[in-house]
Amino acid sequence: MRKLLLVGSVPLDTTKEVFEMFGPALASHLEAMPDGEVGPRRYWVSGVHYRVFALHPDLEIVRRPRRDNGVERLVPHDQTDTWQFTIRPGVREITFGDPGWRLGFALDAINSHSLLQAMQDKGRMPPHLRLQVSLPSVNSVCAPANFPNSADLDIVRVGFTAAMKAEIAAMTARIPHHRLAIQFDLARETTEASGGVPGIPGNVSIESSLAQIRALTPSIPDAVQLGYHFCFGTMGGWPRFAPADLGATVQLANAVVAASGRRVDWVHIPVLPDADERFLRPLAELRPASAAVYLGTVHSMERFEERLRLARKVLPEFGVGAYCGFGRLSPAEMDRVLNEHLLAAKRIA
Question: pTM of this prediction?
């Protein structure tokens, strides 16, 4: 296991900039290199909402983000103006045309892999690096906040799962399997499991999160690496939801690993800045099978070593990463982020 994991999004304009900024400095500590989720993917599920759902003929827009000085806004300001949709009357099935390409994930992955391969061929990136493709989970894209009619969720999740499966098939057909890693980001699932959504018990939430895992992961070729990022959310600042401890996150992680139907290569679990022994103690119950564990401790560096010390009491071996991707940060902060990762790599040795 290498020391570091980059969770995913980087607020730079191009994949080339992401590779050039983070690759040479961190590559020796990474198994895989994300492309930064540049462009609309920077906005995570909101990018799917305005690029895909807002254009779908069988979906009606109920609410869109508030305008800025009269100009349309594609990304919500906060939870009060997220995109919302409803299925048109009489529609019983949602399908997405142009399977494998409609969502845009496969096309971006194929292009990013080509750039990574070219940089490796020129000796500008080490040959061991895979491309890391970070994908939003189905339940995070198709959430109750975006589909107020609960009956709509059952329909749209089935259709979106099929579309995601086609995207994965397209990218794995065109990227050599030993050069690809896929990470699923589970934000809605982590919040629900931790009791962050009123009226949804954690055990019910965990079980409802597993259908998407069972549908998508067994079809990922075994030579492709698979990872999971359990996310506390960053909309409005991190963390959007702060659990009292990691107990529910660990239960969710154990259930997801068991439901995957194939080898899981890593799990990433965020750690709050003020985490104490009580917060971290549930890590002793983590059952990752053969997966590497990365803890999201690379932040608030004044307490970094203290969090390492406390985590090692219950989890002797782990790598580290940031708490989440950086898509909602300013590009001006990336020098600091890079330096924090370099410092973490030195201190975790």
Answer: 0.96
pLDDT tens digits along 2-16: 899 999 999 999 999
Count other C-beta atoms under 10 Å from residue 63's C-beta: 14
User: Which pLDDT does position 271 carry in this prediction?
Assistant: 96
pLDDT at position 204:
65
3-state helix, strand, coil in the chain (%, to 5): 45, 15, 40
- Burial profile 122-139: b = 16 or more Cβ within 10 angstroms, e = fewer: eeebeeebbbbbbbbbbb
State the Cα–Cα distance between residues 243 and 194, nearest whole angstrom: 6
Domains and CATH numbers, the chain: 4-45+98-347 (3.20.20.210)
Could you tell me the CA-to-CA distances from 82 to 50, 64, 99, 103, 229 in Å, in that order? 11, 6, 26, 19, 22
Q: Which two tokens stand for residue 80?
A: 């009060």
Query: Count of residues for the chain?
Result: 349
Question: Whose CA is closest to 288, among 325, 323, 313, 317?
Answer: 317
Strands (E), the chain: 4-5, 32-34, 59-63, 84-87, 130-136, 180-186, 225-230, 266-270, 292-296, 319-321
